[in-house]
Amino acid sequence: MGRLLTFLHENENTFTVFTSNDITKLPPELLRAGRIDTQWYFNVPNKTEAKEILDIYLNKYSIELSKANDIYLQDRIDKFTGAEIEQAVINLQRAMFINDTEEVDKDIIDEALVTIVPVTRSSTDSIRMLEEHAKRFAVYASPKEDEVVETLKKPKIKATSKKEKEALNVFK
Predict the structure, then answer these.
(1) Axis crossing angle, helix 82-98 with helix 106-113, rounded to the nearest 10
(2) How far apart are CA 134 and CA 137, in angstroms?
(3) Cα separation, 32 vs 143, whole angstroms
């Protein structure tokens, strides 16, 4: 810890990034103002993000799903981390191989997911504690699902004058 604090002190014009699975376990001397400027909290992916991650791994492992099975799989991976979503797709590929099929159905999906216990279920208390810490001290890296929905519901702002149009272009 002493070496790290010395590095931070001697390299104050250096952009340094730390990651931690549990920031509450870090010593307070590291977290004081001037050492860590901003804490970011990366929650489990919301539904939109989970779908994007799922699509990346389905493409990577060359697995095609029908619309119905895609929706079924999305529902089953709700509250999975990115790594758990990847493992679900890997398991899906294994289940397809074991069952000697290129067709994915609900049984294959269930077989692929049976061994995965998401961290949100296995460590509920720890996750809750980290979220409480994040609410007080961190910036959320992505909006919560209800915030995504609210953002999508907001009406578009229409500019009427040239100055308003120029001002709105700054935010595009």
Answers:
(1) 120
(2) 5
(3) 26
The answer to whether the CB of 120 falls within 8 A of the CB of 44 is yes
- Alpha helices per DSSP H over 12-105: 28-31, 47-60, 67-76, 82-98
Per residue in 95-117, pLDDT (tens digit) is 999 999 999 999 999 999 999 99
Spacing of C-alpha 41 from chain mean position: 10
Instruction: Give the contacts of 130 (CB within 8 A, at least 6 positions apart).
Output: 22, 23, 24, 41
Instruction: Examine the pLDDT at 123 and tell me if it is beyond 50.
Output: yes
Q: What is the DSSP string of 109-154?
A: HHHHHTT---HHHHTHHHHHHHHHHHHHH-EESS--HHHHHHHHHS
